[in-house]
Amino acid sequence: MSTDLSTLTIAAERWDGLAEEFHKQETAYRRDVHGISMGPTWSGLSADAANRTFDTTLKEFQNAQVEGKAIASLFRDAHTQFVGLHKKLKTARDEAIKAGMLVSDQGVVTYDYSKLTQSEHQALAHDPDYQESVRTAVASWQQRIDQCVKDVADADEGVEIAFNAVVIDSVATDGTTNGFNGKAQGDIEKYEADEAKDISTRIDSGKATAADYKELQRLFRDNSHDEAFSQTLLHDLGARGTLKLSNNLESLGHYDDKKNAGRYKDLGHGLATTLATATRDPDSAFYKQFREEMQKAGTEQFKVDGLSPIPDEKVRGYQSLVTLMQQGNGYNGQFLEDTADDIRHAETSYMAKGNTESVWALRDDFSGKDRGWFANDPLDGVLGIMSEDPKTSTEYLDPAHNDNLKYLLHGRDWDTVIDHYATPPGGTTLGMPVMAEDGDVRKGFGAALEAATTGEAPGSYHDVGRHTEPQARIMQNTINTLYDDKHADHLPAGLTKPLAHALTSYTPDTHETYAESSSKYDIGWDSQGSVWSDDKGAHMAVGHQRLAALMRGVADDPEAFGHLYGAEQQYTHHVLESIPPDASKTTINDRIVESSRAMGAYDGVRSDVIFDERFEKTQWAADFNHGIGTGFSTALLFNPVADITPVGDVTSKAIDVWAYESNKEHTAEANVEATTENAKTYDAGQRDVDRMVRAWGDSRGHGIDSDWTKSFVHVGQDQYAHGRDRTLDTLRADR
Question: CB atoms < 10 A from the CB of 622, how many?
Fold first, then answer.
């Protein structure tokens, strides 16, 4: 805190001055000495010998200038780093004091009790929670200040590495031993990258020490966000060297040295961050060269010790690359798209050569807690990473600009596991490989698809928002492609939950599709539909039959379908809640007709599942109800329209009233014998609609049994049956 850092810039100026003095000496030497052997008055062997010596000396004067200027630059680089780190430390100290802490000259944080009033002292003495909050605050500030000090120490070690390296004569053939360094560089991070490269070489040869690993951790910790360090290291390693280093770290962490697994995980994260930093600029010369190298190394085979029990099993470079990438984040979107494109090109080129198995085929399953860390399907893996960047996911899957979505849904062979080899008839010779999907197939694609269609991170239930046309276009094309391929009602593994999550954000569109009221949505049953925009954002419509088929596919997962059903329930309440108090009977009638039809359509899907003999009905209903329940708290969050509802918020009250009775009836109905007659009278969903309309009527002051409310209940009943029957006609032609 008290060091005068300006001495570093003073030193830099003096080293620049030293270089200038060497320049003067070079000029004098060239004029008064070097030229003697070049003149006409001296010739022969002695003149030749002298000329070589004079050349070496002249070069040394020049190299001294290079080294002096590099040292000056290192001092300035150090000054910049230390000033920034000093400022961070000072800010942390000042903010800690402002937050009620004391910070000693040694950086020890304690609580400043002197600022407490007498009553606060008494409260602290008798309140364990208060005491714990003080301890937590002190520990948090101590951790922040300790980290700031550690950052200074890390930077200081880097400066030491640079100053030790800058004076080493790196050219053995320049006529001197330990002369001046004519290739000296003025960037601390480049010398640290050289150090990291040397350690990587020792790791590859099995000669790295514990100190090497510790130093490599420090190098990544201090520099992995620095472009000069990152590009220098990866340039020196090359694509193959980068993959070999990653493979070695994975082998050590997962198999050879498990007791130090945390160390190798930290190193893997550092290398992945270095990769993200180095590839930040897709227009740089480094990026283009590294990508070209990776296109070659990506299909080469590498041995990863311990990865597979199969003797001589080797992995491809792109599998190692994506395994490495999964340990980092913050990748440039263009890098992710380019990597996905290159992986796709590698696999299609391999199949074009007549190979029957995937280029990524391995004789093992790589899924689950212990095996899922390895990206045996690198395209799926990079899509999973891409899902963390919804904007890039949308760009990559937008069918208006490329065929990536079609390839992933329709054209790609997802079998990456060699399940076994077929034995030819009449012989024991190893036959063709019999391929199968991996246990986590399409996990990455599903996440990217969810991000691309919602504009939000995958894995959650999305608020209804303003979609963009590309997002809506991807959803529309997904439904149509799956339907045309006859995969909609039995979705490919890995896509059910992501599609359910994404569809919750399209509830206004699916509601209108089933309502059959708006001209934009009232289209042919088998229509591919359209995408358009208005003042509420972009919208998507597809034919009733296509949408129902996809929802039927989702319903194979009862909890996922429960989220969709619950989202429609909430949206229906939102629609009714938004009816103005002075609305005409026609307006009220239309909203109830539309909402009842939509609820009926969703219930038509549920009906079809219950009467499908593939399911254990009671368990399906229980999981479905759980999906609805969690959907109420995490799915769609509509703005309450309290100012136009005289009795308060319909949605929350109605759902509270509904939940218990509705769940009981759904479960009880699942136990009814699955006959055609029962299918026709299946009515738990009908009572859901009745309760919805009655609750709404009650909220408007008319009472649940008033003639006014009953008239709309009857409308809802008729239109619920209409929506349910239309969906069942699509799904159960034999009913």
Answer: 18
